[in-house]
Amino acid sequence: MKGFYVAATNQHIGKTTSTLGLAAIYRSKGLNVGYCKPVGQEFLDLDQLRVDKDTLLFADLLGFNLTPAYHSPVILGSGATAAFMDHPDRYTYREDVQKASAHLQASHDIVIYEGTGHPGVGSIVNLSNAEVAKMLGLGVVMIVEGGIGRTIDQLNMSIALFREKKVPIIGVIVNKVIPEKMDKVKYYVTKKLKEMNLTPLGFIPYDKSMAFPIIKSIADRINGTVTFNEEYVYNKVEDIISGSVLEVRQLEEPKNNLLLVVAADRADNAISKIKIWSHDSSGERSPLSGIVATGEGFINKETEEYILKHKLPFIRTHLDTLGTVMKISNIEVKINLKTPWKIKRAIELIKENVDLEYLDGALEKI
User: Fold this and answer.
1) For residue 153, what is the domain's CATH number?
2) CA-to-CA distance for 186 and 18, rounded, in angstroms?
3) Which of 178, 255, 266, 353 has a CA that sits 20 to 30 A from residue 71's CA?
4) Whole-angstrom distance, CA of residue 104 vs CA of residue 18
5) In order along the chain (366 residues), what is the average pLDDT of each group of 10 residues?
């Protein structure tokens, strides 16, 4: 069982969360699981070493010492593709991927390779997802977003490149299926997959908690400045409430981890309402996980004391309230080390909804 390649129809479909869940489950079976992101785009520079961001997550999960040459052999950062086109003879990308794979295969029971972007990403350097899977002799687990028509359309287009390279598709995981539509989606997509000679590995329901952002992501998105409690910017946000239309019904049900977005000159009034309406009349508990104050204005001493007492990150932004909420609503939330609830839930979702027995059998045949 040498491993498999996880690809997706596009970005933000659930490739990393699915890979994470699969890696954790195989590790729980007692296998020595290896991980590789053969081609990466989003990277970090650590002690003069450049690695794909996702490798940090897997290094922590699987407990390996991160070695870029093995776990993140090719990084296509800004300017990399033009440099390759100008002087392809200076690069050994294919050999780098092959060396990384050979090392990992020799030292692990199974290696899971995570693709990048849509199937064609990397083509400019002759390392598309399909080309990498073909070169390494791997079968592919394809991740597609839940639905019916659009799901099949995207899937059909995406697997064409793999089929052109004669790369076997082990099966398909349909992710983020609206729970109320699960039976309908499962019936029609399964029917169509069988016509396409593809195997459905599982249908994963959309889980709202997987889309919860953290305060830091929000601050970065709106170019905000954290003026209080910066050490708590990894608080999660489960919902947004607007101070301009704050009503008692928004706090009728006990909720935690709310983000208050309010014009700076109305922040005092909004906090006063929250104090009154909060279910904990003693004031010992706050339903908030952070506050974004938009535009110009100052807060009074009582509001500042509330912020400090409840350790709420307080963010200032020059955007107006509507613009702030719109930007926050469009955040693409990625799983990472600062979102432990997502890691736990990703593992649960894969374990509960993916046919791992079929996957094991298919791997033995490749």
Assistant:
1) 3.40.50.300
2) 18
3) 353
4) 20
5) 91 92 93 94 69 84 89 88 90 96 96 94 94 96 96 95 95 96 97 96 93 90 92 90 61 72 90 75 76 91 93 92 81 79 92 92 80
Residue 205 shares a structural domain with residue 231: no
Find the length of the chain: 366
Q: Which domain, by its residues, includes 185?
A: 3-210+335-365
Beta strands in the chain (DSSP E): 3-8, 33-36, 39-40, 43-46, 49-52, 74-75, 110-114, 140-145, 169-177, 200-205, 225-228, 239-242, 258-263, 288-294, 314-317
What number of other Cβ atoms are within 10 A of residue 2's Cβ? 17
In 3D space, the residue among 4, 65, 15 whose CA is nearest the CA of residue 335 turns out to be: 15
Distance between CA 133 and CA 353 in Å, rounded?
25
Cα–Cα distance between 130 and 160 in angstroms, integer? 9
Gyration radius (Cα) of the chain, Å? 23
**What's the pTM value of the predicted model, to 2 decimals?**
0.84
